[in-house]
Every structure is written in C-alpha cells, then in structure tokens.
Amino acid sequence: xxxxxxxxxxxxxxxxxxxxxxxxxxxxxxxxxxxxxxxxxxxxxxxxxxxxxxxxxxxxxxxxxxxxxxxxxxxxxxxxxxxxxxxxxxxxxxxxxxxxxxxxxxxxxxxxxxxxxxxxxxxxxxxxxxxxxxxxxxxxxxxxxxxxxxxxxxxxxxxxxxxxxxxxxxxxxxxxxxxxxxxxxxxxxxxxxxxxxxxxxx
Length: 202
Fold this sequence. Notes:
By secondary structure, the chain is α/β, with parallel strands linked by helices. The chain has helices spanning about 15-25, 40-50, 60-85, 95-105, 110-120, 135-140, 155-170, 185-195; strands spanning about 5, 30-35, 90, 130-135, 175-180. It has a five-stranded parallel β-sheet, sandwiched between helices. Helix 2 (about 40-50) runs antiparallel to helix 3 (about 60-85), helix 4 runs antiparallel to helix 5 (about 110-120) and helix 4 (about 95-105) crosses helix 7 (about 155-170). The radius of gyration is 16 Å and the shape is globular.
C-alpha cells in the first residue's frame, strides 16, 4: 500500500484534505493510518509543542535536528509498521517540509538537511507527494482568525520562499509529485488525489 504525503505552505489546507481522504478510504473499506509532522508519537508531540511555541527562539539548524528526531520516531514507530501491515499511510508533511522551510525558506544547505535526515527516514520516500499550491497572501488570509504558532508568525516573506522551494522540489521530483491548486474546492481536490492513489492501491 502507498505512502502518501501532503505538503504545502501554512494555510494550504493539508488537514482538511487529509480528513476528506480518510473519509473516502473508510467508505471504500481501505485500511489506513493518518499522521502529521511533527508529531504522531509521544516524543514527536513533545517536540511539536516546543517547535511551534512562540515563546521559544529556535535557530534553523536546531529546527532541522528537532524535526528529524520527530520524523525518526514516526517512521520507526508508526509509518513502517503500518506499511508492513498493508495499510495506506497519509502524512501531513514529511522530509520535503524540512527542505522547503529550513532549506529554501531559512537558508540551511539542502545537503546538510539530507545528511541529518538520511538515518531518520531509513530510506523511506513517499510513493506520492501532493503539493497543495497556493499564493501565500491567500493562505495567510485563511489564518487571520486563528491563533498563530511560531512558524506562522514569521510571516509572508517566509511563506513566499517556502512556496518557491516546494515548486522547485516538485520540478526536481516530477515522478512522485502531484501539484494541485489549493484554492479549488476541497472535495474536488480529494477526488483528484484519490484517482492518483488508485495507481498504488492493490
């Protein structure tokens, strides 16, 4: 069964689309596990709280290590066991988030991010990466009434750089990327993804 990742800047709708996909998979009787990054394990959730807390100042290098630690726990403790049992795995964010945010967004060398994450992911790359692409100005408007976390508070300029990074990654890894306009209706987006997922579901 496939490992599917949902990527995109803040406010692009990853959580909404994940919930819709889960609903469709349940309707079809397909077993799945849904996770998010950072998080998904006890240590991952503790790291998530730290990373997103606006009261903490965390450097981009420290972010790389913290995200990789959370990712390692998630891969070993949840994702690989689920795939071994024949379940679809849906993940909101994965390695590409580190490349886009800490790499393209904050200037950490991509080579360093890959080196830190290589042992963390144990060779596991997504079968399909869905990029929910959206203008950062529109995505941040969606978040206006939401209490913002530390990353969201970094503002428009970061999100512009991150979006650019995601589009570069999508061009680099065309074989596994599906880029979708995130301003489309969520149900329409979910159906597009499900159709693409059918190539992997056996």
